[in-house]
Amino acid sequence: MRPRLFLAASLSCATVLAVAHAGASAPGGRAPNMASNGRQPHVNYMTECQGCHMPDGRGIAGRVPAMKGELYRFLDVEGGRAFLVQVPGSANSKLSDADLSALLNWLIPAMGGPAKGGFTPYTPQEVAAYRGKRMVDVVGTRANLIARFPAEAPRTN
Ligand code: HEC
């Protein structure tokens, strides 16, 4: 809070208004954290995610679900876009909203989803809004979404 207040105080009036507007556009009421750790999305995946999800996204049988060929399917059901951000591995990571949105926009095609341009990319604002709402029942929410996946090749897990 303190750095933001300091920042706001040192900015011009017009910029302050823009910052306030960015905050207002996030329904959670939180302005997106636009910081970047300077790493490419795939590097952030390597350091923050692949210990559980594995380098190729195959996961760990019985513990971490496979993403490969599966991840993009969440985008086809209502609530799925929010889920990919609110799932604890994403939401609770130390990545900023800007870095997490970039990571997801890289991850979806990398895991066999539509290429960049084939889906609506996440924005830091959208990620901030979803992160502002805590998901209570992860397992139940996930099962509900999967039950509503449009018919396709059978899932393996
Ligand atoms: C400690 C292990 C762990 C780490 C680290 C982790 N995840 Fe996950 N992730 C899981 C598990 C387990 C699930 C299944 C849902 C649940 O139970 O949380 C999951 C589910 C997901 C999903 C939804 C896909 C699905 O099939 O449910 C996404 C998206 C995701 N993680 C992204 C990430 C990202 C991005 C990172 C790194 C910033 C990350 N995860 C780090 C364990 C992890």
TrEMBL record:
Keywords: Signal. One of its GO terms (molecular function) is electron transfer activity. InterPro entries: Cyt_c-like_dom_sf (IPR036909). Residues 1-22 form the signal peptide. This is Cytochrome c. The lineage of its organism: Bacteria, Pseudomonadati, Pseudomonadota, Alphaproteobacteria, Sphingomonadales. It comes from Rhizorhabdus histidinilytica.
